[in-house]
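Much of what follows relies on a compact textual record of a protein's fold. An example makes this concrete, so a full record is given next.
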Amino acid sequence: MLCDAGRVTGYRLSAPDALLYHLAPTRSGLLREGDLITLRQTGGQSISPTRLGEPITLAVQGTDLADPRGCCFAKQRLPGPEACGQTVVPLVGDASVIPSPPLAAQRLDLVKTLARACSSSESAQRHDCTFDLVLRNSGEASFVGVVALTDTFMGLQPTAISTQGEGWSCHQRGAEAICINGAVQLAPGHESHVQITLSLRGGARPVRFENCAALGVGPDRAVQAMVAQRAMQLLGIDGGPVDGQPGPRTRAGLRVLTEMLGLAVDENITSELFTALGLPEAGPVSCVSVDLPALRRPTPPPPPVCTAPNTVRQGNACVCRRGFEQVAGRGCVPRTDPPPPTVLQCDGATTINQGDACVCRFPGMVRHNATSCVCPQGTTFSAGQGCITPQVEPILCPNGLPRLPHVGCIDVRIEVGPRFGRE
């Protein structure tokens, strides 16, 4: 970008601009040369889609950059017509853009202070300390871009870290933490605040905890990897998790990132990469020292007094002796075992066992008691057959005599008189 008397006289889109201006592709996939892009400003305004390498109309409204010179340095928020004019920018010879000035040229200052007195807990054996980090634009030009802070811990290593601050995120790596904000916008004299709360393990002796922060990226390779991984996340590049351990996804993402920045395609993390991102090596530090008191161990309760003969001490408590059980309001009382469950002995001839009940074995039978069944009146029980109706056998009279109902056998004789004789 070239500035002349507060007006943009020449501009050309290229891949590095996609990073500096957070250009979003209008179609899926990574931003590459020739992709359709939309230039967006904080607040939702956008510039019509165009192609990398083609002229673009700067017509974004609603800016607080009153100084026209700001258009030379603004990277996300572009000045409106009242500052730089509404101009269709022609192509100029070079297809690349002038990289953003380094942090030193922007004159960003970092100051770290203790937000309030650390809190200490003897029961948890822990100290909680909150620090304020203030990033101030002490220069004459507005700054818009990516900022990284390296926080180093000496004396104690935090067990947990939490961050508060718009756009800020922090990741701990051993005795260091890296905090990144991918969208810092600071007019001259303005500040960005981030609050970091650290949980520190307490001890029996007092200790001094020193906490130092610096702008930029430190020399630790794992921290540098975390910065690169986080930068790729902000740009929508799949660089793997932010864990400080470059793996295949991180290396593949670095190839995409270096190409996007106009650098030689590389899967290694270099100082040139951070310079292109606007992230120099760590500069002067701002330190805070905190004297943390010794934490007494919680006093254990006195040992309980256990009464014999039904209790015994176990550790720091009284428990019931063997054969006793705890009953609310009564203490330890002799344990009474419940009676064994009653097992039904079913009558095998008339019933069968089904679960916990005896059921009649044959149809038509009626229950006599819990373990047996009987046949109804008028029938008799036949083993293996059940209830049957008895058959009545007829009683025969001797010598073929007839039998009359309710009378019995009768003797009937027929005699022949003389008149029936032969004449």
The mean pLDDT is 72. Residues 2-88 form one domain. The radius of gyration is 50 Å. The longest helix spans residues 221-234.
